[in-house]
Amino acid sequence: MRLLHTSDWHVGKTLKGHSRLEEQELVLREIVGIAREQEVDAVLIAGDLYDTAAPSAQAQQLVVRTLMGLAGTGAEVIAIAGNHDHAPTIDAYRPLAGAAGITLVGSVRTADRGGVVEFRARSTGELATVAVLPFLSQRYAVRAAELVAQTPIENTLAYDQQLRDILASLTTGFRDDAVNLVMAHLTVLNGKMGGGERTAQSIFEYAVPASIFPVDTHYVALGHLHRRQRMDAACPVHYCGAPMAIDFGEQDNTSVVCLVEAAPGTPVRVTDIPIQAGRRLRTLKGTVAELSGLAGSVGDDYLRVWVREPARAGLREEVTALMPNALEVRIDPEFAAPVQASRPASDGGVERSPAELFSEYLGTRSVADPRVEELFRTLHDRVTDNRSADNRSTGS
What we know:
Layout: E1 2-6, E2 14-15, E3 18-19, H1 21-38, E4 42-45, H2 57-72, E5 76-80, H3 87-92, H4 94-99, E6 102-105, E7 116-120, E8 127-133, H5 138-141, H6 144-149, H7 152-170, E9 178-185, E10 187-188, E11 207-208, E12 219-223, E13 229-231, E14 237-239, E15 256-263, E16 266-274, E17 281-286, H8 288-294, E18 302-307, H9 315-322, E19 326-331, H10 354-364, H11 370-393
Parallel strand pairs: 1-4, 4-5, 5-6, 8-9, 9-12, 10-11, 12-14, 17-18, 18-19
Antiparallel strand pairs: 1-15, 2-3, 7-8, 13-14, 15-16
Helix pairs in contact: 1-2, 10-11
């Protein structure tokens, strides 16, 4: 049978205030097209369909259209909630989704209540058994009283054991004559971050070793870490990664979906299929003159620009005039690290003027622009003059 593994769509994600729904629609259409072209028997979506627990109506419409499109290819569609999703809402859609041939699992369930999904491949008639494990927060896996009373390492071990127990229960029914699969949204120890994950829910306390997955599992389809990677384990354990870079920390990641070919009693074959849609994210560094020379080569890429010049008034506007897709403009930290200026002692008790204090502040921020200092002096004099006039008019 042929399976398509994808995860971490993060529909509704914005980048520096810019909506990316149009890009996300193109990416998801491409995934539907791949499912149709490859004639897959099932699509496994390993969590984080949305970027937020309260997605916009437009984001929900896009996810629903995509799930319907995948189901329209004739494939089984199984999706679980990730840490960005609102699990109760995902579960609320279960009856409607089920009527459309889509299986949604928002919360951890026992095998007999939806924690195990079985289907027969339309291409081969072979049986597949899928143990599904949506994201499980540590605060739910480990009781609050234990979190308070136990040490962090004890809590980590307790979380590890909870997931082991859950997986052991869900995989008890694995069969020799079936393709046995696990789909989960979690952090595996030694996994490499993609760059845009929610760090608080990806740290060591939430990580488990790859050894928790049963050795007789044909394939483990993971979501949560946005970098494509295979984990070292006794069975095939794969993160497919996010299908598009969601932040500049992911600009060098390769976006793919995983095509998995599996049969009972034989090793799986995994093929990465690149995703072509979506705008590239790039970081450029240079002086304004150097950036001007690069302006014609960036196309429609979204840019993060690190300027290798001291800050000055109007610098951002100069850069964005050259590169309208520059979503972030900052001074290159390697070029202009903040200066730790020491405050000189006053001379004979004479206090420094506001202009001198402001000039010192600009030095700590690596700003060297006489125009800014002159503007400050002008505004300060204007405010001071107005205040003096007000005092005279009131007789103070």
